[in-house]
Design brief:
heterotetramer, A: 410 residues, Aspartate Aminotransferase, domain 1, 2 domains, seven-stranded mixed β-sheet, B: 145 residues, alpha+beta, Sufe protein. Chain: A, three-stranded antiparallel β-sheet, binds pyridoxal-5'-phosphate
Chain lengths: 410, 145, 410, 145
């Protein structure tokens, strides 16, 4: 059991009011809030150590470099990557996927090859592959889903076949909550000689992640969804693949030797980090990881299973609502996407906002998925470590009021 | 029920949303206005019949989507009745100005009638688009005349 | 005259000691320090407004979006860009140049075309063009420099010719300090129908910048060199060019409509900003601009001319040192690059560091330029608004000690 | 002059830097070791003559670059004298360990002699590379024997 009261005290924004009501923040799948230790890490860095990293012989530069590389090591440990050269700083998950689809993809995908993604991918794990398929004349194949929002694996051996060169799948769907059987997808991919990329944007913040165990070739995630600041994300790449990949962005920091005619790339991971990196935010992400580790990722997962179970049971009291995604909390994250035929999600969102509750409404950057559900958008409540059952009670109650407000005929 | 929510969905808006006016298809319309906002799935379908003197004599409005889009469509379908094309343009300019700028000259504002109630939506700037959708659909069409 | 005392008080790090000596920070060309208002802006954002931007109907999301777009407007005004759609957030200057060389370059550079850069470019404004020239079979041409570190324009009309499709030039050299006649380069480029890109990484923080006046097609700069946080930079693109450019990174936020097969791009500038942006740092960069504007960019420039003039005169007291770049402070920024035959720059750097002075030593990411000077590296001191003549006195004095320390034979 | 600087450039280092030992080319060397660190422009040129019993009998060291690289090269050229290849490997391991790890067993440490003075450089971690450059150049060559 988490000590939620103590945790909540660590998050300054949670004492804020919205429309004169205490803020209930249920938009964690979009971005998480930040504990004071992460915020302080930024203040401390800029007040004491700020300097550009690498190559400086002066004290501030050495100190910044140490803090920066320490954060990288921390990330490596957090996902159980044996070496920290596998950790490449990006802005966010999206940039990481673009890096892979450009650097690895353009070189390795041949005409006629297949790229497999699932029907529940975020645009960030769909559009870059559309572009790659288009440019390299490959075929983008979509693995379908069942009615309950789980992947349909009936014909998985047709979908992952000898033409498949990479399988890229979301671990936890940001619009359905579904947790996918990635181990199975990964080993199927490897069996046909394909690479496996994991979109961990929603999973890494909420469930323990072990790249050695999963054996994925690529993993991306975003700092801002796991208590860290905006502007910093991570791409993990297996060392042997990294060695063979060409750089993506070029310029300062990522070169070892440059003449006017040509350049020789720097060592890993710098080869993939062009220009001055987001030093302060990388260090702050390290702090976020310290915070998460202190609580324990398994404890976080357990807390969210509990909240999800509770919310699912409470949802039954509301009729006229369709809830998407699997009902077994063991294969779903703390994400509840729902729809009412009678009220547009935006109206629900606006109503809840007036009661202090922040949820997200829309297609959640999974437009093709939402379209396939034949609805314009969904309302989505998503939980994190600081959320409570009391908040869920208030949310369900307010949601009931919203339904009555918009549907009761006077 | 708190009071604050009524600052966005005031009574008139809610009434139009729950009981949309002119909610019909009409026979042989002179003008058909359609628009979608793919982001939120709002849809506008307005049909208009003109007299020989180019006066609006019949309107039909079937809109889908959020309450604000629906209410705005319904209210639009009412105020159009009996207006000339010029008058519609004029009204649009005033309405657009109310929704986007800070002040509308008082004289002009009076022409808006109960459309003024929609001003409340500005408290929720992201929803202004929903409110303007039927209007832009209409203007796009009548500009072609 | 700047009120330096007051300014210094705004920078917490300046009260720090290094090796028991007060910090003298002369590494501003690498990155600048941050005023408390910028640091506080981060704290405030994360403590009060933090949320993902765009599309959210809840209060935090609307407030964040407002702050984020307000920062964009502030940047637009700061460089006199008429519209804020021209302002694209990047991580740093390097990413901006990569965006242009990829999105504009790959589409518009034909085999046999010429790309012109100067001999004093930072690797970030050299390597991306090498790659582009290589891929599109174009020719990268280098505009040479004179002995005094200014551009050699004698044959400029040969260098900028009908084959030239883009001229990309640094405004202020980060290793020589030279301020280039960019207006002339820009109009020559336009005369032959070429585009003009300005690397403003060193100039935008130190001298007034007016894109309407310069008439450049592209401009890049980095927040971290102008009192802003790391991880945020800006690419300005002329509206008519932006309209025609394909996106670079793809994924969430930058699309309007997506099916499983294809995507339709979002409006400008979002089309070029894939994934969750670096919201907090963009807002903090807005604060940095407020700070700079309150002082006044022309006042900053004047202060730095004064410091540079002073330092140049003091340098005369030291023999055995070669100073690079033009001696006229009107065509040089507050950047002093120097070399001694007898002491390696790293030893100077280490010696000064032990006396609390932070300078940069190395090739400053302009390796081909430094090689052409026939030296292994230079020592570089660079100034900003919080630096003083007293600091320069102490620096010159300590530099003298360093020379004696390493060259006096016991 | 402050004291603190002498913590990096202690007297012995400075002496070797200003008066590099064995600063010569030698005739028909058996081993030639070269290395450059392009980042800072350090250069190492060490030449070695072996006796028939594979004992080092003559060394020449011409190194360019920073004081630490120069001092380390000069000191290396002195300690090599009279050592067998095995002894050089052994010494390298101890030296490398001193520069990179936190502790070196006391017994081993004694074999380092005045090389121990170079430990001071660890206060300035970025310079460790400069200090190790002549050593890695040497080991690269003798590994080929
Ligand atoms: C002239 C110049 N251009 C480009 C850059 C690259 O800036 P960043 O590392 O912030 O991308 C720099 C910074 O070192 C610079 O001085
Ligand atoms: C499943 C999934 N993938 C990718 C992303 C993209 O993350 P970011 O916007 O941080 O790049 C998100 C975030 O919305 C997501 O939920």
């Amino acid at each position: 059991m988490l000590d939620i009261k103590k945790i909540r005290n660590d998050f300054p924004i949670l004492s804020r009011e919205v429309n004169n009501k205490p803020l209930i923040y249920f938009d964690n799948a979009a971005t998480s809030q930040k504990p004071i230790s992460v915020i302080n890490s930024l203040t401390e860095f800029y007040s004491k150590y700020n300097s550009n990293v690498h190559r400086g012989v002066h004290t501030l530069s050495m100190e910044s470099t140490d803090l920066f590389e320490e954060a990288r090591n921390r990330v490596a440990k957090f996902i159980n990557s044996k070496n920290s050269e596998s950790i490449i700083w990006t802005r966010n998950s999206t940039e990481g996927i673009n890096l892979v689809s450009n650097s690895w993809g353009r070189k390795n995908i041949q005409p006629g090859d297949e790229i497999l993604v699932t029907a529940m991918e975020h645009h960030s794990n769909l559009v870059p592959w559309q572009i790659l398929a288009d440019i390299n004349k490959a075929k983008l194949v979509i693995l379908p889903i069942n009615n309950d929002g789980t992947l349909n694996l009936d014909e998985i051996d047709t979908f992952i076949n000898s033409k498949t060169k990479i399988v890229s799948a979301v671990h936890m769907s940001n619009s359905l909550g579904t947790i996918n059987p990635i181990q199975e997808l990964c080993s199927k991919a490897h069996k046909v000689g394909a690479k496996f990329m994991l979109d961990g944007a929603q999973s890494v913040p909420h469930i323990p992640t072990d790249v050695a165990d999963i054996d994925c070739d690529f993993l991306v995630f975003s700092g801002h969804k796991m208590l860290g600041p905006t502007g910093i994300g991570v791409l993990y790449v297996k060392p042997e693949i990294l060695e063979e990949m060409d750089p993506f962005l070029t310029g300062g920091e990522m070169v070892l030797e440059v003449s006017y005619e040509k350049a020789k790339w720097n060592e890993l991971p710098m080869k993939f980090e062009a220009g001055t990196p987001n030093i302060a935010d990388a260090i702050a992400l390290g702090e976020a990881i310290v915070y998460l580790e202190n609580i324990g990722m398994q404890n976080i997962r357990n807390h969210e299973i509990e909240l999800t179970e509770y919310a699912l049971s409470k949802f039954k009291s509301l009729d006229k609502l369709t809830l998407f995604g699997p009902l077994d909390p063991l294969i779903r994250g703390g994400i509840l996407s729902f729809h009412s035929e009678d009220i547009h999600p935006h109206d629900i969102g606006t109503f809840l906002d007036h009661e202090g509750i922040a949820i997200r409404t829309g297609h959640h950057c999974t437009m093709p998925l939402i379209r396939s559900l034949n609805i314009p958008a969904t309302s989505r409540a998503s939980f994190y470590i600081y959320n409570t059952k009391d908040e869920i009670d208030y949310f369900i109650n307010t949601l009931g009021n919203a339904i009555r407000y918009f549907t009761d005929v006077k | 029920m708190s009071n604050s929510i009524d600052q966005i969905y005031d009574e008139i808006i809610l009434d139009h949303c729950k009981n949309p006016r002119n909610n019909r298809k009409i026979h042989k319309p002179n003008i058909i206005c359609k628009a979608v906002n793919s982001f939120c799935g709002d849809e506008v379908n307005i049909e208009i019949k003109l007299s020989s003197k180019k006066i609006i004599t019949l309107t039909g409005s079937k809109s889908l989507g959020c309450a604000i889009n629906q209410a705005s469509s319904s209210m639009l379908s009412e105020v159009l009745y009996g207006k000339s094309i010029e008058e519609v343009f004029n009204l649009y300019n005033i309405f657009n100005c109310m929704m986007k700028e800070n002040t509308v000259p008082k004289k002009a504002s009076e022409q808006l009638g109960y459309l003024k109630n929609l001003k409340i939506i500005k408290k929720n700037p992201i929803r202004i688009k929903c409110c303007l959708l039927p209007w832009t659909a209409l203007i796009n069409e009548i500009e072609k005349i």
